[in-house]
């Protein structure tokens, strides 16, 4: 999927993140080009989800800098709520707002945070709903949807903000297996449409299919960085080999 | 000749006096419910404070109110405190205070529960779509907390209305006291007076509390979806 330009959307230098005395990310360096799809892999607790949350200010960082389109966004004066309008994020938990209809869920951000015109957002929302095949659910409440449907709505809700980049934090991890596919398909389609994406996942097949670049993280550090072909066929580090072996075993068993 | 028992209610001003007595009960309930709603929300927010000392003080207050029976609080305020501090408190005013203190404690605990039961990622997703903290509270946290809160808050209100009957014991002339007076006057002439008077009081409480609890049920089913 060689469609990215050489324009850096996101750039992270010497990011340091601690919880009290525990260092989660000692010194993280990272960048994403426009249109690139980066998949972060690693054992649970390695810091990949925390890193993602640092990128849109949901976690405070102790040192380092984060640049979005060349502008530092982690300064003290940063209005995070403005920055976050350009960084879409989808979480593992079904995080739709239960007291609003699907449509209200999608419209809330564009109308209240971005101050856009309701009619214009409505048209965009309906187009997006159509695209993921859920237009008929627009008046439904989240509790009436399946996990996979909710997660697709959560993706659209983020997309409707017209973000520069999308972050996905293990979005299929708490789904029933038969619903994983429908969510991954939406993400794959997004990737093919040229959306810039940073994805934390344990779906190896998906990583192979969608990623332009795979980054393997362990204990808060980048251990290996490669194209998916290279990473999955001939990982260089011991830790990555060990990690991939676990999944091979899983595949053989299932 | 022995009159029909039910006629007790219509003799003289009896029915009017009962309703008048009920208005005293309602007045105490209304005042204390209003104070409890306001201070209860405040207490509830304080109970979720980051500072441990504040949480402990609130917790102590809540437990003190709960452990000691409401009746004892009434006696404490009306008979003891006034003696020690040398001032006079009308019985109704003492009741207002005690019921407000009680309601505030219970309401505070309900509010605390509603706030803490909100999953953290609800707020995160609000932030992630670019809402400010104020907007997250306005559109996400408060509407959901209210929905969780209102059925139990209404339940508390009906409990408070019913429990106002205790104030008779510090001499407030409310509906129960009026009823006793009527019974005492008529008991010789009408032996069944107590049945009719208490029956009437039962009915009066019912027409006040039942619509309230119906309303809460309706809200509950409406918000269940």
From TrEMBL, chain A:
GO molecular-function term, one example from the UniProt record = ATP binding
Q: Record's Pfam families?
A: ABC_tran
**Domain ABC transporter: from-to ranges:** 10-244
Q: What is this protein called?
A: Amino acid ABC transporter ATP-binding protein, PAAT family (TC 3.A.1.3.-)
Which family is it part of? Belongs to the ABC transporter superfamily.
The UniProt entry, under PANTHER family, shows: AMINO ACID IMPORT ATP-BINDING PROTEIN, PHOSPHONATES IMPORT ATP-BINDING PROTEIN PHNC
Source organism superkingdom: Bacteria
Q: Which InterPro entries match?
A: AAA+_ATPase, ABC_ATPase_HisP-typ, ABC_transporter-like_ATP-bd, ABC_transporter-like_CS, MetN_ABC_transporter-like, P-loop_NTPase
Answer whether the UniProt record assigns the keyword Transmembrane helix to this protein: no
For this protein, the record's Gene3D superfamilies field holds: P-loop containing nucleotide triphosphate hydrolases
Species of origin: Propionispira arboris
Q: What keywords are assigned to this protein?
A: ATP-binding, Nucleotide-binding, Transport
SMART domains the record matches = AAA (SM00382)
From TrEMBL, chain B:
**Gene Ontology BP terms:** amino acid transport
InterPro entries noted in UniProt: AA_ABC_transptr_permease_3TM, ArtM/GltK/GlnP/TcyL/YhdX-like, MetI-like, MetI-like_sf
Q: Where in the cell is it found?
A: Cell membrane
Keyword Glycosyltransferase assigned to the entry: answer is no
Membrane topology field: Multi-pass membrane protein
Question: What PANTHER family does its record include?
Answer: ABC TRANSPORTER MEMBRANE-SPANNING PERMEASE-GLUTAMINE TRANSPORT, MEMBRANE COMPONENT OF AMINO ACID ABC TRANSPORTER
The protein's name: Amino acid ABC transporter membrane protein 2, PAAT family (TC 3.A.1.3.-)
Q: What species was this sequence derived from? A: Propionispira arboris
């Amino acid at each position: 999927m060689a469609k990215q330009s050489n324009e850096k959307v996101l750039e992270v230098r010497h990011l340091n993140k601690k919880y009290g005395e525990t260092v989660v990310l000692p010194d993280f360096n990272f960048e994403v080009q426009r249109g690139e799809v980066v998949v972060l892999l690693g054992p649970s607790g390695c810091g990949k989800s925390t890193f993602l949350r640092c990128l849109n200010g949901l976690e405070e960082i102790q040192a380092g800098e984060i640049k979005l389109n060349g502008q530092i966004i982690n300064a003290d004066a940063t209005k995070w709520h403005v920055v976050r309008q350009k960084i879409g994020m989808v979480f593992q938990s079904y995080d739709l707002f239960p007291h609003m209809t699907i449509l209200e869920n999608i419209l809330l951000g564009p109308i209240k945070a971005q101050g856009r015109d309701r009619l214009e957002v409505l048209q965009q929302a309906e187009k997006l709903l159509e695209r993921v095949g859920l237009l008929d659910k627009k008046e439904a409440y989240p509790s009436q949807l399946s996990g996979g449907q909710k997660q697709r709505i959560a993706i659209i809700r983020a997309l409707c903000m017209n973000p520069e980049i999308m972050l996905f934090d293990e979005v299929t991890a708490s789904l029933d297996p038969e619903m994983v596919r429908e969510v991954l398909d939406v993400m794959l389609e997004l990737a093919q449409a040229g959306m810039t994406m940073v994805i934390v996942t344990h779906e190896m097949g998906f990583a192979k299919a969608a990623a332009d670049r795979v980054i393997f993280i362990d204990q808060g550090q980048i251990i290996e960085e490669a194209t998916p072909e290279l990473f999955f066929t001939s990982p260089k580090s011991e830790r990555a080999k060990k990690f991939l072996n676990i999944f091979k075993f899983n595949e053989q068993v299932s | 000749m022995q009159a029909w028992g039910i006629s007790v209610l219509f003799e003289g001003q009896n029915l009017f006096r009962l309703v008048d007595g009920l208005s005293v009960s309602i007045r105490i309930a209304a005042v204390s419910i209003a104070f409890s709603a306001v201070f209860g929300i405040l207490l509830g927010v304080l109970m979720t404070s980051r500072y441990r000392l504040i949480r402990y003080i609130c917790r102590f207050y809540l437990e003190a109110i709960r452990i000691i029976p409401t009746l004892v609080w009434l006696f404490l305020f009306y008979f003891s405190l006034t003696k020690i501090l040398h001032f006079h408190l009308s019985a109704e005013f003492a009741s207002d205070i005690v019921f407000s203190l009680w309601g505030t404690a219970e309401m505070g605990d309900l509010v605390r529960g509603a706030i803490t039961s909100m999953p953290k990622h609800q707020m995160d997703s609000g932030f992630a779509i670019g809402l400010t903290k104020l907007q997250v509270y306005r559109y996400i946290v408060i509407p959901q907390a209210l929905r969780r809160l209102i059925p139990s808050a209404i339940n508390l209100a009906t409990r408070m209305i019913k429990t106002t009957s205790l104030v008779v014991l510090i001499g407030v002339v409310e509906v129960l006291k009026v009823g006793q007076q009527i019974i005492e006057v008529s008991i010789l002439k009408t032996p069944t007076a107590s049945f009719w008077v208490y029956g009437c009081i039962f009915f009066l409480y019912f027409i006040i509390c039942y619509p309230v609890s119906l309303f809460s049920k309706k809200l509950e089913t409406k918000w269940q979806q």
